[in-house]
Input
Amino acid sequence: MFSYILKRVVSTALVCILLIIFLSLLIHIVPGDPAKTILGPRATPELIEKIHTEMGLDKTPFQQITGFFLNALHGDLGTDVFTGRPITEMIMDVFPHSLILTTASLLLAVLLGIPLGIFSATHPNTIGDRILAFLSISFITIPSYVVALIFLLIFSAHLRIFPVIGLGSSGNVGDYIMHLIIPALVLSLSWVGYLARLVRTSLLEVLNETYITAERSMGIKNRTLLFRLALKNALIPTVAVLGVGLGKMLAGTVFVEIIFSRPGMGTLIMKAIQNRNYPVVQGVSLIIALWFVFANLLADIINTRLDPRIQIGKTER
Amino acid sequence: MRKKKNSEIGVLSQLVKTPSGLIGTIIIALLLITAIFAPILSPYDFSTQNISERLSGPTSEHHLGTDHLGRDLLSRIIYGTRIALKVAIPAVIISLFIGVLLGLIAGYFGGIIDYIIIIILDTIQSLPSIVLALVMLTLLGPSLTNLIVVMGLTLFPGYSRVVRAQVMSARQELYVDAEKALGAKPLRIIAGHILPNVVPAVIILSTMDLPAVITIEAGLSFLGMGVRPPSPSWGVILNDGFSHFRQSPWPIITAGAALAITTFGFTLFGESLRDILDPKMSGMDS
Amino acid sequence: SKEKESAAQKDGPKILKVRINADIKNLDPARRYSRWDDVISATIFDGLVSYKANSYDIENVLAEKFEISEDGHEIYFKLREGVQFQKGAGEVTAEDVKFSYERFRDEKTASAYSDDWANLDHVEVISKYEGKIILTEPFAPLMRTTLPLNSGVIVPKNYIEKVGLDGFTTDVIGCGPYYIDEWQPDQKVVVKKNPDYYGKAPYWDEIQFIVISDNQSAEIALQAGEVDFAEISTNTVDTFKDNPDFGITSNSDLDYRWIGLNVENPKLQDVNVRKAIRAAANVPDMITAAYNGMVEQETAIVAPGLLGYWADAPKYTQDLDKAKEYMAAAGIDSLDLEIAVADTSEYRVWAEVLQQNLKEIGINLEINSMESGTFWEIGDGDKGKDVELFAMAFQMQPDPSWATMWFTSDQVGIWNWMRWANPEFDELHKQGLSETDDQKRQVIYEKMQKLMDDDAVAIWVTNGKTYFAYNAKKCSPAMTPNNSLQFRFFSAAK
Amino acid sequence: MKTNEHSSNVLQVSELDLCYRTRSMMLPALSGINFSINRGEIVGVVGESGCGKSSLSYAVNGLLPKNGQITNGSISFKGEEVISPDNSSISSLWGNEISMIFQDPMTSLNPVFSIEEQIMTAIQAQVSFNGDSNSEKREKMLKMLERVGIPDAEKHIKKYPHQFSGGMRQRIMIAIALLAQPSLLIADEPTSALDVTLEAQINDLILKLTKEMGTSVLYITHDLGVVAQICDRVMVMYAGQIVENGSVQKIFAEPKHPYTRALLEVHPGRAAGSRRLHTIKGRVPGLNALPEGCRFASRCDYSTEECEKISPAESGDVNNFVRCHNPLSGAVPEAETSNKEQNILENNKEDELIIDAEGVKVQFPINVSLTDRLNGKKPEVLRAVDGIDIKLSQGEVLALVGESGSGKTTAGRCLLRLNDPAEGSINLKGNDITNLKERALRPLRAKVQMIFQDSISSLSPRRKISTLLLEPFKIHGVKVDNPKAKVKSLLEKVGLSNEHAGKYPHQLSGGQARRVSIARALALEPDILIADEPTAGLDVSVAAGILNLLKDLKEELGLTYIIITHDLNIINYTADRVAVMYLGQFVEMAPAYKLFENPLHPYTEALLSAVSIPDPSLRGTTQRIILEGEIPDPANPPNGCPFNPRCRYSQEICKKEKPQFKAVSDDSEHLTACHFPVIKNS
Ligand SMILES: Nc1ncnc2c1ncn2[C@@H]1O[C@H](COP(=O)(O)OP(=O)(O)OP(=O)(O)O)[C@@H](O)[C@H]1O
Ligand SMILES: Nc1ncnc2c1ncn2[C@@H]1O[C@H](COP(=O)(O)OP(=O)(O)OP(=O)(O)O)[C@@H](O)[C@H]1O
Ligand SMILES: [Mg+2]
Ligand SMILES: [Mg+2]
Output
């Protein structure tokens, strides 16, 4: 366990270093100047120079990279030149919102997708199964931004059942949840389809295993067999996939956050890219990468709980 | 050569036997036809503007209505098919090429080379592809070619991983030992015995990647980072439509539907293909 | 439920919810970046003078007395006594005035607005409440744009010296009608009524500025009652106009937006080519397509209603025959050109319409739409020589010098992307800055605009027009003619 | 007698037909099955692969695959009909009255639950424990586990299946199956995935427990030797029919059906020292092409015209019949033997050693966790091969035998440098290849070939057989003038027809695949051939064919062989010399006939006694030595003599001192590593 984690830490560190090198190099080749992008004609040469110095753009890439890491080790990702806010703080402000959104949508997906998958697996090739299969693929394939656009109009402009813009008033949990429902639903849709299919396939596979036949021959009733003995096996691949889903949360949230005007990691990095706000891009990317690694680690650990055969540390990285 | 053709026909005929394979194949065939015969099929030039007729709903002249510049939406959607495929196919080919090569190298040689490649893949994959594509497009500037290159570069780790895993497991296989025992050189083993085992997985992955690329391309165009106007990318139509939704929902509805149907078709096709090719190439029987 | 709402408002605090398009970056008046920094800091800070509600007329605010010397070199002021900064940061004194203005010229402040105080020599403190602003030269824009706006507000010297520059970015302290209560980055900024305000208390107890970057979302939020006041896109004006629950207010912007032609580019060196392009361009179509026809066509760089507006400027509409004549005069019948645009829907539409227009006179226009960061660099230095056409918009303050300053020859390679260098224009610009007589200035600026027109360096598109929609049952807005929102003057529904 | 029979009758199957639905047609997997099982009776079912043995067990226990369908007949359990459309009446018997043991213990336990959870779930479901409290149930579970030979059950039940060895898992399965003391146990080849020694242990256990509980057993196997040892009655199946049914004594003494007789004849246990093994020509017909008349007719030496036209009926009682037009009589004749001793002497030309390996060791690194390493633990190795000498002269056949995991395969691979030796030297045909670079080794590879344990997976799956057969020539740059003819001749050499040339490996049967890999190995006419388990997993008849082939090839080409096997039965027939391996070391080496006559090492002695011989009269007569326990973990071998923990002669010294590998008598050909060799007093 310990050596496993150490290994993970080392490769995570390597990934982060490579990522930051990549981003730092990018900064030096990418056209576009942060000062001009934000200020337009107001950007005087002195001001541009000052902003460059503050962003550390005058240093060599090597100095930038080492400096960045030395600070990052102390949890300091630099400051946003334009607002003077620590980037760590900026990220910590929005990160929970993205996290809640992703978790909520994954939770929704689990609550809907797994039962649907079980239904399909226990009724293979029936009409219900076929309809579910069709729906699942549709859910998986329709791009999230198309769904988001359509939900935005249906729910907010026409039905007005749910508020959809922003996070709701702060401190009001009920309002926050109301604002969360539609975005989470949009994000979860493809996961519902995905999980339903995944659970169906793996459950069907498990139900064909000899040990299930053996257990049936021991007189164990179908219900126990399905929900206690087979499902645990079938959930192993699901957990791994959910881990990846959690890790890749940003991919989905970018669009949803933009369309529903929610602050979050997606909107933060999107704006930072547009404004050429390099320190913010770097900081956010680093956190995203770390989060990705963390989520996968989490899934691995959960899987070792589910599957005693997997010995953490013996598995390939 | 003739044998090979036979086997391809075999796969195809198996594909159209299942309902989902049939639907997928039909959709893809229609897409290809639409893309190839776009000039014949589209009633108008996709870029001709008619400001006075802007944002009209479906009429007898414009079957799907017009956009904010009064251009015929049907024609734009039809030409959009070309763009979707023009980006998706080369991008998938690029990522396939890089991915397979790196995967083979990593899987066969293992050790430190493998570790380095894996770290590179991890790095690329630790950022979501949309973000990575955004960052890289910022560097290169949005254009069709850059879009293709960027998509290729963001997606190749998927192939590398699959190929690497396959090669690693193939390397454990007895037949590799058997070849070695016969005195075969590494190149012969990789090219002659390991690669053919990787091909089905790669084919499946690439048919699954096509809709992903189309989705990301349209997404990037929606964010304003995609192809140049007046190219009628579906994402561009969505983006323009989003600004004028109150006046006419048709741009969003049509482009959204085109995207959804396309990705749906490719996914069905890919999955049916996987069912046939995996795990054993039973379709290869003569 | 509407009744309930208003009933609740009678009891509780009166809260106004306003959509802002982007989050604030820095509320320090000297280091503000964006329009929303301006709008919000305007509720927190007071200056010596300010615009009256809904007008460009100036009234005294912090100043009890305010006098400009004959030669325009000195401005005397006397402050009201006993005005307190918020949050116990002390009384407003002449020292604060000196500090507030002089810091604009201080390199450490690195103010993007240092030009607002271009001719400031120093501020002389006469007594605790009295002082003099000493200028090196008379400076016409001072009274129009510097003093009544954010560059003229007073900040607490002692407090800033205590917390340092980094402590005065979003957690600012002024002496205006509102103080900053809370900032949730990317979500909202909340200001609350300053209980110790010396002037007339504003109507709203609390104003929440809610960040919604996307117009569509903002419109939905407005309809859903999630905000009370929001900028809306020209495309949806009709929807709100037809709805009695909402009020619409609009004002033409001062910004100027144009398609520039680079005179140094070999393809565009011939003035006939440029004129041909100008004649072929169908600006009304652009306006229909990009703004749903809800804005006016711009004829010259200075907006209507401003000093220096050129009323007789020619208004170009598409004239293909003329365009072909110019082409013939230039001796070409076909040409490949490229237009660079930042990738927003607005500019793309212009470019697409122009593309179609130019096709008719044999010019093939390629649209090079780029991401804004990249776009802002293309005119830099010698690189700028390769630019052909470009779409651009500059912001403007209510003084004509703000428009002309970017097109002098020393701006070539910086902001003068047309690379148009005209010594006469340069000279006139200098004169316009130091001339204090409005009539004389009018003549100067009209002449400058004519020079630009003669050389056909730009196709003016529009000054823009901003539309705001608001909950007509709840509030009634106030703003200067150039759309500077005056939240301190917002009132209850009329 | 009749009434008695009825009351003691546990299972009664009559006129049972079973079909599998496939896309193209209904496959009749079982037709006209009649038999019954009496209380406490152990009934064996034998037959080649694909004859429907498993299908029979599915039909009886109601665990038919989805496409399986009983189309006719009845099954009654203790007088009650159990065939019902939804399986409900039979499923209520599962676990309580009928229970199962499956072939592969590796896949028959749920991998994600601990043993305790699995057994408890089963107990909760079984009615016979309804009255018990949880602690009573647990108590019973522990007792049962102790009974099947899991010591310290309390400690082990917390473990997960993968933490047990195959033998242990099969014991656990038996414990679960017998928990509720069912009336009928169905065991489908419960030992075919296990070693000989484990097979003996498990069969003994089944025999002992079921006799104690009075449980009847339907025991499916393909090994007549096992039947002879434990069954009361045997049913011989062929192509979905029971062709002969009768008591073990009778059938082994006087098989009536030609198929039964053929099965007995090909059994390698009978073939010791024979010149040539019997085989049965042809293959079991596919279910989609069953012949009209007797299904065995095409392979039968005695078939007549009648046989080909008319399907024979059962003649005799329910449990004592034969399905044949011309039943045979009399015993199976003894196999002819040849003089082994002479063979050896002819071949033994000491002067020129073609294989000369000395002190070879092969080690695999073991992952030591970083924490352990930080705590000062050194990285360890698993000594798969721990110092063996192999010296072979031209034309000699050496057999390597030993339990699974003893290092046989690794030893073979090492000679080919597929695994690199950690120590020792390897000399092939006078070339020292111990440290030779792969590039330099390549030319030599043409002359030294290996047939791998798992033939199908040793053939590249996406290449046609013809391509695979021509590949050796391509690799070594040998020009082939007429590739087609070459392929044909190679296939013919191993007894295959040219029709296989266009197939892919997965389209071949196990025996065919093995032949193809032999053909491939022989393509370049090597001098040395290492055959790893050449008959494992094959039907006896097919295995016999392969062994005959190897023998023919040796005589034709003068090959030098190393045959790796754990099946002692085949050694006697093929090998000149035998080396017995245990934990990576040789414990005994001798000419084959001497080893069989006089095993010196207790391990060899036990291995030999575990060999199944298809002769029920031997039951109880020879004293069977059943080896206790299992082979220790090679990463952590015992001190002293590696065999000492399982040895029945073990003394103090064995635990401390490792015995030398040397000749104990004056016979320099017979070496052993034992402090107390078993020297017969003859
Ligand atoms: N589910 C099925 N669908 C179709 N055919 C089947 C199915 N299961 C078995 N068969 C066929 O039925 C025949 C009998 O198979 P069965 O498994 O009963 O044989 P067996 O005697 O147990 O063989 P083995 O010794 O290999 O286990 C074979 O020809 C097999 O191919
Ligand atoms: N590549 C390897 N890495 C690690 N350990 C191995 C490897 N190959 C074999 N071993 C171990 O070496 C020991 C001997 O294995 P080997 O396969 O040589 O035994 P065997 O006698 O051929 O057994 P079987 O009869 O099961 O084929 C076993 O404990 C096995 O687990
Ligand atoms: Mg079977
Ligand atoms: Mg082996």
In short: Residues 438-454 of chain C form the longest helix (17 residues). Residues 1-8 of chain C have pLDDT under 50 and may be disordered. The longest strand of chain C covers residues 335-342. DSSP finds 15 helices and 20 strands in chain C.
